[in-house]
Amino acid sequence: MKVTVEFAGQKKTATAGKDGKWMLKLDALKANANPQEMVISDHAGNRVALKNILVGEIWMTSGQSNMQWPAGKC
Question: Global pTM?
């Protein structure tokens, strides 16, 4: 079964395995704070729309008392 993903002007297709699992990679996107919609569909007409997707980076840090320092001082 073919699965198609449409997102941010890209349209990519993948083939699902017998177990129904599939994977595809989108081209790199620039950070964008405007909510976008991703549509996932198959050849049988099934369709799922994921809304309010944002593209960007997530930075996570952890530490102790030095967490209050700006990154340039570390």
Answer: 0.76
